[in-house]
Amino acid sequence: MHHHAYLWTGPKARFDQEALRRPPHPEPPPPGSRPELIQRYREVAAEFPVSDLPPLETAYWLIKPRELVRGTWPTPAAAAAWLSEQLAAHQARFASDAHRDAGHLDALVRSAAERLTSGVDSSYGFYLERPAYLSLALVTCAPNRARPNLPCPLDG
Fold first, then answer.
1. What's the whole-model pTM score?
2. Strand arrangement, sheet containing 2-11
3. Which of 54, 72, 86, 146 registers the highest number of CB atoms within 10 A of its CB?
4. CB-based contacts of 32: which residues, under 8 Å, 6+ apart?
């Protein structure tokens, strides 16, 4: 098992485009469906796997383009160290004073390391100034506990 890191930051309005953050339904709309429903399904089916937007379910980062992987580590501690670095790098921009608290951030890093040790993904989100949003995720791979059928982005 290893762990991949993902980071996304951008306008909160773009982050709120939830339809592009959900995988398409496994079955397309049935024949005879409204044309706008068919078109929307096609858009989501084409856009979801290539979009850099964070998926609503953390494991689905694994089907995103491999260029979005910010790092890969064999141990939970190493992956959590990356998370700690990212939190420190963005800490001054957090919109909430509570999120800037070093003790709070240390607790998040410890929690992430514990979850990764159990094979569970970790995902965090923070409002930044402007309004912008920061999404950080650590995803277990080979296999992923929540979605064992998803391939490793570094294979193939």
1. 0.92
2. 71-73, 2-11, 132-141, 122-128
3. 54
4. none
